[in-house]
Design a protein that fits this description.
Largest sheet: none
Number of strands: 0
């Protein structure tokens, strides 16, 4: 049962993002879709927010790596004491 319910929070989050941003931006939350549209449209304002699709994942990966090194790897040492 838990495996059937696991995708619900992700789907709900995507649904909420779409509800909030469709009127504003057309909801380009898929990097491939946003890049393709920017390439085809090819106007200056189409490229204004493209950086977030490239910088965001790198920042997220760096934060996850730091969290893993500092917090997750430290757990076995804390439990031995």
């Amino acid at each position: 049962l838990l495996q059937l319910l696991a995708p619900l929070p992700i789907g709900f989050a995507v649904f909420l993002v779409h509800l909030a941003t469709i009127p504003i931006t057309g909801t380009g939350i898929n990097p491939a879709r946003s890049l393709g549209a920017a390439i085809i449209y090819n106007r200056d304002h189409a490229w204004d927010d493209q950086w977030i699709f490239w910088v965001g994942p790198f920042i997220g990966a760096a934060l996850a790596a730091i969290y893993h090194q500092i917090v997750i790897r430290a757990i076995p040492f804390k439990s031995r004491a």
